[in-house]
Amino acid sequence: MKILGIESSCDETAASVVEDGRVVLSNVITSSVEEQKLYGGVVPEIASRRHAECISQVVKKALDDANVTIDEIEAVGVTHAPGLIGALLVGVNFAKGLAYASEKPLVPTHHLRSHIASNYITDTELKPPFLCLVVSGGHSHIVRVNSYTNMEIVGRTRDDAAGEAFDKAARTMGMPYPGGISMDIEAEKGDPFAFTLPRPVVNDSPYDFSFSGLKTAIINTIHNAQQKGIELPKEDLCASFRYAVVDCLVTNFMKAAEDFKEDTLVIAGGVSANSLLRRRLRDECNKHGYKFFMPNKAYCGDNAAMVASQAYYEYLDSNIAQYDLNAVATLPIDYR
Ligand code: KG4
Ligand code: ZN
C-alpha cells in the first residue's frame, strides 16, 4: 500500500511516497533555512510563504521520483499537529484539496509520532512496544510506545527543549541557526571537562528534564569572560555544553528504561542526529543488554518519509480525517 506523506510543520516543505510504512520510494525536502538564518531563528510568516510557493512542485516531484501517479496512491497523510500554525495550514489545505480531488482517504498525522516512525523506515524489524526518547527543536519527551498509535508520555521538559537549548547556546557563541548541528561538529574537537556545568534535575520527577538553567549557565560563562576581555575556546564550550545536555538525556532515559523494565530503546527527532547522544546510548544499551535503535541520520530532521510511514499505521487504525480537518499548534502525542 503506497501512501503520500506531506510535511510543513516548521521550515521544511517535504513530500514522500512510502510503501507499507517501511519502504521509501521517494523523499523530497526543500527548506527556507537559509533565509531563516538571517533572523537567527524561524520566522513563521516566512516559513508559511515558502511552503505556499514550493508545495505543489515538492509533491509532484515526490510522485515522479517514486514513479507513481496519484491514482496509484492509496491515502494522503499530512502533518496536522503540532507546529507553526500558518506553516501547518499550507500542508493541511494542500493535502485536503489533493485527497478531495483524487477521492483518497486523508490521514492526519502527529509530527512527533512521525519522528518516531523515522525508525520504522530505518530498521524494518523494529516494532512496538518500546521506550522512545523524542528530542527535537520544540519537544523533549520520554514516551512509552505501546503500539504504533498508542503512546504514553513518561517524562517531558519543564522549560526548553533540548534542540532549543542547543540552538540558543550556539547563537550566543555566534553560530548560525540551527546551532545544534554546528555545535555537535565543533564539540568533537573540544574537551567536555573544560567547563563545569550543572545537571539540572526536576524534584520528584526523575524522568522530566529542565534545560533552561544549563543554557543560562553557559550564556553567563560566555558573558563573564567577554566582560573581562577573555575569549574562551569555542570547541571546549561546545564540548562541555553538549556533554551536559547529553548527560541529562541519557540519565533520565536509562532510569525510565530500568524502572519500566523496557528491553528496547529508541531515539527520534532532530537531536537524535547528535553524535555524542548516539554513541553514549549505544554504549549504555550494550552494557545493559537493551536493544537499541536510532534513525538513519537522513531521517532525523523533518522529512515526509516519516509522515508517510506513520500515516500508514494511522490508516490501519482507521484514523481518517473528514474535510473539516484543521491544523493544531499544540497536541499531545497521546491524543488518541
Ligand atoms: O526534529 P527537528 O528537525 O524539528 C523539530 O521538529 O523541532 O529538530 C530540529 C532541532 C534543532 O534544534 C537542531 O539544532 C537540532 O534539532 N539538531 C541537533 C543536531 N542536528 C539537529 N542538535 C544537536 N546535535 C545535532 N547533530
Ligand atoms: Zn520535527
Describe the structure.
The protein is of the alpha/beta class and 336 residues long. The chain has two domains: 2-116 and 299-316, 2-Layer Sandwich (Nucleotidyltransferase, domain 5), CATH 3.30.420.40; 128-295, ATPase, nucleotide binding domain (Nucleotidyltransferase, domain 5). Helices cover 43% and strands 19% of the residues. The strands form two sheets. A five-stranded mixed β-sheet has the order 3-2-1-4-5, with helices on both faces. A five-stranded mixed β-sheet has the order 8-7-6-9-10, sandwiched between helices. Residues 10, 115, 136-138, 163, 166-167, 178-181, 184, 269-271, 273-274, 301-302 line the site of 5'-O-[(R)-(carboxyoxy)(hydroxy)phosphoryl]adenosine. Residues 111, 115, 136, 270, 302 line the site of zinc ion.
